[in-house]
Amino acid sequence: MAENPNMISSILKCKCPKCREGYLFLNKNAFKYKGFLDVHDNCLKCNQDFQIEAGFYLGAMFVSYGLTIALTVAIFVAFVVLNVYSLVPFLITAAICLIITTPFILRISRSIWIAMAVKYEPNAILDYAAQNKN
Q1: CA atoms in the 13 A half-sphere facing the CB of 63
Q2: Angle between helix 87-117 and helix 60-81 axes, rounded to 10 deg
Q3: Which of 8, 34, 105, 134 has the most Cβ atoms closer than 10 angstroms to its Cβ?
């Protein structure tokens, strides 16, 4: 077990927010489009329920919107820094970047959303193992 894993790295790696070791998604590959947003029912390490309630992950769309806007603003700033003041190249570049990063953005937004709802417990795996031992 890792010693107090970093919250940001566990979000970016789409790990369980409770133990920060189990994987949130069934497929580790974001570009496997069939089922790339399917999550486990429970964490395989600490048994945290990932299906908290019906429609829980609908709130992740707000996080996804924010991440998409942040990426678009970053592209705009890059264009301003490079002194490219043309709308068409900006729109083409932004569209290509957003199409490429959409699977990552959707997964990260779900990971952020569940991390806001579930508290980290350093002994979650040990507690789960102790419950199953009896």
Answers
A1: 19
A2: 140
A3: 105
